[in-house]
Write a structure and sequence with these properties.
Layout (H helix, E strand, L loop, with lengths): L8 E2 L5 E7 L16 E4 H4 L6 E7 L6 E4 L6 E8 L4 E6 L5 E9 L1 H4 L10 H11 L3 E5 L5 E9 L3 E5 L4
Parallel strand pairs: 1-3, 2-4, 3-5, 4-6, 5-7, 6-8, 7-9, 8-10, 9-11
């Protein structure tokens, strides 16, 4: 619901994204704009979903890179994902059976070092970005049956992992 109801890329059953990078041109690293998540799957916008893949994906400056909500189905693969989450890197909530999260990296440096228009350009900008990231969360796992996680990384993000009841 809300910000999560209309992702930039909404995956349906059997769909996937591979070998892409997403950069929001109008994002602000000092005061992040609540733009739609880069990639989302969930019943809020596309019904029950099964068998999706997110692989070899870079998201430089999204407030919400990944949303995986209310799918109630299984066989999802998240593999080789890199992002600088300005608010929440991955939110997974109210999901059914098996999902694999492998080799996921949430790190301040991807945005800080990209050199794109609007990205931090100097030490002062990087300090502002780092200040913003102190309020960010790399991963939030809310009610989720059988998530398998291997090699989840968080560097320069205020909170690495939250596991809690569904909101």
């Amino acid at each position: 619901e809300g910000i999560y109801s209309n992702p930039f890329i909404a995956l349906s059953s059997g769909a996937g994204v591979r070998n892409i990078a997403v950069y929001y041109l109008n994002q602000n690293f000092e005061n992040p704009i609540d733009l739609a998540p880069c990639i989302g799957l969930g019943s809020a916008f596309n019904g029950g979903v099964a068998g999706t893949t997110v692989e070899n994906v870079m998201m430089y400056n999204a407030a919400y890179p990944l949303y995986y909500g209310a799918c109630s189905n299984s066989s999802h693969e998240f593999n080789n994902v890199w992002a600088t989450p300005l608010k929440i890197g991955l939110l997974t909530d109210n999901n059914g059976d098996v999902t694999n999260f492998v080799n996921m990296h949430m790190d301040a440096r991807y945005y800080a070092e990209c050199g794109f228009t609007g990205a931090p350009q100097n030490g002062e900008d990087c300090q502002k970005l780092n200040s913003t990231l102190q309020d960010a969360v790399a991963y939030i796992f809310e009610r989720h049956d059988t998530p398998y996680a291997n090699s989840l990384y968080a560097h320069g993000i205020g909170t690495g992992l939250i596991v809690r009841e569904s909101s």
